[in-house]
Hints:
This protein has 482 residues and is mainly beta. The protein contains two helices and 22 strands. The protein has helices at residues 6-22, 323-326, and strands spanning 79-92, 95-109, 115-126, 147-158, 163-173, 180-189, 198-206, 218-226, 232-245, 248-264, 268-279, 282-294, 299-308, 332-342, 347-357, 370-379, 386-396, 399-412, 416-430, 435-450, 455-465, 470-481. The chain is globular, with a radius of gyration of 23 Å.
Amino acid sequence: MRRSPRNEGARGLCIALVLGALSCSAPAPRAPAGDGARELRGDAVGDSPGDGADAAPGDEPVDASVDRPDDGPTEPRLLSGQLLSRYRARFTGGESDHDLYETLDLTVTDPEHRWSGSVLAHAAYDIDGRASGGDPTFDLDDTYSRLAPQLFHAYIDVAARSFSVLRFGRQPMYETPLTLVFDGVRAELAPQGEHRYALGGFAGVGEHTYETSHSGDAVLGGFGAFAPWSGSELRADWMHLEDERLGVDHEDDLFGLALSQDVVRADTATRVEGRFTSIEGDGRDVRLLASHVDSGGHWSLQGSLYHLLKTQRSLAAPLDPFSDTLFELFPFSQLGLSLTRDWRHFALLTGADVRRVSDTSDEGEFNRDFQRYYVTGSLPDALPVTVALTGEVWRATDTDYDTWGAALERELDGGFDVTLGSNYALYEYDLFSAEERDHVRSTFVALRWKADAARRWALRYEYEQSDLDDFQRVQLDYTWNF
């Protein structure tokens, strides 16, 4: 497979953003963080279909929670962002794999506030050469050249009086019924009126991280939203998606309707949201989300319910990035519930995940019935080390399993902290090898050093045991915030 030619044009846009910013002579106010790197990967047991997002290699995106340098009262910077450098080694049996990764999350702002830009780029380099298909360390990057660059987004936001968003370039959209990345233009009118009416639209060429050609790919869509009453929003989306792959043309229209309600008081915040989507007029899925946070009582509650209404077969990406290899996804329901409570010297997290395939005869390797119940208790400051213990109960087809997890963390002098832990998953889907692993027990030790407000180092060793194979992994990260 060859690298998508779309990355070449978008890479030119990335360079133009940086050169344009460097040509400005006056210092600019620091822009708010862009869309940044979203966590695109997930374990099979927790993901719902249709949220299709391609995963970035290197396991984890840029850690947006890492402290940025404190500029204090001085003038903000023209350029700000984060550079993550990572070395990863994996060992199993007599095989090994060594890789380098670089991830750049950059924000650029015009000194006169006429525009701002954001770039998220990634590159992977295979130090010891690409693995073959039969090698247990084989992953998606091994299907490309030894150096595999990727551009996740590179866009410019133009300030315009009548628009809340006017964006050009490669850009992600998270507000739509499903995550979308495309090369094109997005425009949203500034909300108007007492009920805050808003309209927006977008058009361009769809971007799929691991696809080799953009021939026949197109996206087009729009939305309308308004607030029927205080704290509410009613939003309708339409998305037209065209995608050509494996010699087949896909053309699909997705309609989405969502209603949300926020209730915010002095010490509490509650949000309830319901979403419905359909494809070509046929109901596709229903999702209900609810959350409540009580800061005064130090507790929170989250819940979700998802139901896939119709069997999903080969559709336009990103509606369906997987069925060409994993085949049909049959209707199922999944319920999630979690509760947190903090006391002075003790914190509790408990919850449940329950998944049911609508027809038991449709159960398959990537679509299973299961129940998972878990409880985690932690002692953050009652002992010299922070202790967290987790108990889990798994109930699945022909499988009953009770297991445990534990973590110990200790802060040391000089900005160091060390963590030792172990966790378990009944099913774990590896996006890099495209395999599902069963009964996965991971034991790890991690050492982190915060050199200063801008620089951090992290070293992690992990030993993973599963029904498929045993792996050892060593990972070294250097993060520079600027």
